[in-house]
Amino acid sequence: MKPMQCPDCGSRRLYFKDPDDQYTLYEFELKEGEIVYIDQDLGSHPPKVEADTETFCDRCAWHDKFRVLKK
Questions:
Q1: Domains: count for the chain
Q2: Is residue 28 a part of any domain in this protein?
Q3: In whole angstroms, what is the distance from residue 33 CA to residue 18 CA?
């Protein structure tokens, strides 16, 4: 299986913004195709990542829909 990573720089550390609060970020890594949240309060229950969730790279300026990472 092709690793899911930033198409520009290859980083597997990404984040997305809470759709209800654009100042809340959810950082995650992609490990074996699964989202693993980084330093998150597990009680906060992050929103579900959908195919059209706007996703940002933590290392470079890349951002696009989450589905682009699954190609």
A1: 1
A2: yes
A3: 21
